[in-house]
Amino acid sequence: MSKLTKEQILAMLEGGLIASCQPVDDGPMDSPEIVAAMAQASVIGGAAGLRIEGIENVKATRSKVKVPIIGIVKRDLADSPVRITPFLHDVEALAAAGADIIAFDGTDRIRPETRDALVAQINAMGCLSMADCANFEEGMYCRNLGVDLIGSTMSGYTGGEVPSEPDVKLVQDLKAAGCRVMAEGRYNTPELAALAIKNGAYSVTVGSALTRLEHIVGWFVNEIKAVK
């Protein structure tokens, strides 16, 4: 399969849904074959792109789909709260596995590699870049580094109680400042996904509500229990 150009990738994603195919860690669906099947089913349903975690999962998915893949690696580090693609060698491995876009934690926190170095490495590997940010200032910092997609991914997840609603205002503010915004984080209904696009998001990523069956079933069970 010939490699898509940057312009082709962005055109395919514009106004579309990105399905984040990330099963619950160590759950019964946590295997490359099942992740690839989730990805194929998502594309059949109309997903414009995919967000895939893990090198083996990206490899398995790349051979099954033609839509753009946003690749990440998650790590739990002892000396940093940053989990998403923290190392330069993660970037290299994701590119080799077939990711078109590489996402990294764009927050202003203690980290093993600088955001500048990660963006430079992504560019050197010939991939597009995406920064998972928590606030406007982080988004603008990453935009000024030349990051292709600014995600609202980390909003609400860097301390304190996690909000129940998505951060639509962050999407609005980043869009107004000239960013190409990936709305992500708690867009867990079709109506909220549409709201993201309506408010200026370039694309919207949905994860748990699509591909984490344990979570989805739990939502239903909890609502049923609440009325007993």
Automatic annotation (TrEMBL):
It catalyses: an N-acyl-D-glucosamine 6-phosphate = an N-acyl-D-mannosamine 6-phosphate. InterPro entries: Aldolase_TIM, NanE, RibuloseP-bd_barrel. CDD domains: NanE. One of its GO terms (cellular component) is cytosol. One of its GO terms (molecular function) is N-acylglucosamine-6-phosphate 2-epimerase activity. Pathway: Amino-sugar metabolism; N-acetylneuraminate degradation; D-fructose 6-phosphate from N-acetylneuraminate: step 3/5. GO terms for biological process: carbohydrate metabolic process; N-acetylmannosamine catabolic process; N-acetylneuraminate catabolic process. It comes from the Bacteria. Keywords: Carbohydrate metabolism, Isomerase. The keyword Lyase does not apply. Pfam families: NanE (PF04131). Its EC number is 5.1.3.9. The keyword Isomerase applies. PANTHER family: N-ACETYLMANNOSAMINE-6-PHOSPHATE 2-EPIMERASE-RELATED (PTHR36204:SF1). Converts N-acetylmannosamine-6-phosphate (ManNAc-6-P) to N-acetylglucosamine-6-phosphate (GlcNAc-6-P). Belongs to the NanE family. This is Putative N-acetylmannosamine-6-phosphate 2-epimerase. It comes from Chelonobacter oris. The gene is nanE.
